[in-house]
Design a protein that fits this description.
This protein is α+β, with helices and mostly antiparallel strands and about 140 residues long. It contains two helices and five strands, in the order αβββββα. Strands 3-2-1-4-5 form a five-stranded antiparallel β-sheet. It is elongated.
């Protein structure tokens, strides 16, 4: 039973770990990367499908190159011509991240709630198993 509790808690904290890693990657690029303004060139998909494809172009500073990056995003958050602040790795210009700003706060709150739910489930399962064991022993 302890193994089940550990698995549930680990499952609850996995999304939080992923979000923390993503935040770390953005912070690293903010410190060591190049800040540029990208432009949304194309948006395909629909709100009803849930996922959209976005093509963003941004310049590689100090060169005549323009990087065109195709991304899959949830919903339809961008429009053609929209300008976005992003950071890219100067060694690998195709490695870029958006300046998410406060967008991570919602993800952290959601993942903390998910982790708390998993811990609650462990206690709930423990109480129900204890009560079931006690009533079947009579």
């Amino acid at each position: 039973m302890i193994l089940l509790y550990c698995l549930l808690i680990l499952l609850g904290f996995t999304p939080l770990i992923i979000v923390v890693i993503k935040i770390s990657n953005v912070q690293k690029l903010k410190r060591h990367g190049v800040k540029v303004e990208g432009i949304v060139r194309e948006v395909t998909g629909s709100v009803s499908s849930g996922l959209s494809t976005v093509i963003i172009e941004y310049p590689v500073v100090g060169t005549p190159h323009i990087v065109s990056k195709k991304l899959t995003v949830g919903g339809m958050p961008y429009s053609v011509g929209q300008r976005l602040i992003l950071y890219y790795d100067p060694v690998q210009p195709h490695e870029m991240r958006f300046d998410s700003g406060k967008g991570f706060i919602l993800l952290i709150v959601f993942t903390l709630l998910l982790a708390a739910l998993m811990i609650f489930l462990c206690f709930w399962i423990s109480d129900n198993v204890a009560n079931t064991s006690f009533t079947t022993m009579r």
